[in-house]
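#struct-pred

JT: dropping the chains for the assembly here, can someone run the whole complex?
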Amino acid sequence: MQSKHNKALRGVLTRVGVVPVLTIGTVDEGVALVRALVTGGLAIIEVTLRTEAALATIRRIRAELPDVLVGAGTVLTPEQGADALTAGARFIVSPGMTPRLMEAAERWPVPFLPGAATASEAMALADLGYSVLKFFPAEALGGAAALKALSAPLAHISFCPTGGIDASNAATYLALPNVAAVGGSWVAPAKLVAKQDWAGITALAETAAALRG
Ligand code: 3PG
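RK: done, full complex below.
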């Protein structure tokens, strides 16, 4: 079942090119931030489950911004996956993979994007039917050069790299044949969020959305 969901996610990611990865302080701030990003043209959003406000923010986005494809990130356990689904997450992302997560994901009614950092991990996930994987932490693992090297032997696998990606290197990743989309927090800098500079964030989102044209 996940192989079908994951394949659909690959198509969606390829269309959008950039996925904001958000760590939310408060629910109101999170909703305003997502509005700013969506106004700028980024309608697929990953809310990481690293803060108290994450699940409630996903719930509010589903209620108030129904056209936004909001997912839960930093899902490390099946229990967190279940919580994310209850909150309304429309996809689930993990920095890695564990046997428990992979087993639970088979029952999730939404796409799962597991993480791989090595050829062996990517091959193991491809064996389970996953054709798009998170590549994390991308820059620390060798960045675009590492993904380019993986594209020769693993041409059938696409990646969504995250970790250290920003406006200066996103286009280099997106030019690779095995990159479906890039993810990152650079479109929602803490400084702009603190100032509630939503217009500034919309401008960053517009620039990022234009990367895939
Ligand atoms: C993630 O969870 O994907 C990363 O923490 C995002 O990394 P970044 O903050 O370097 O963009």
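JT: nice. The longest helix spans residues 2-16. The mean pLDDT is 97.
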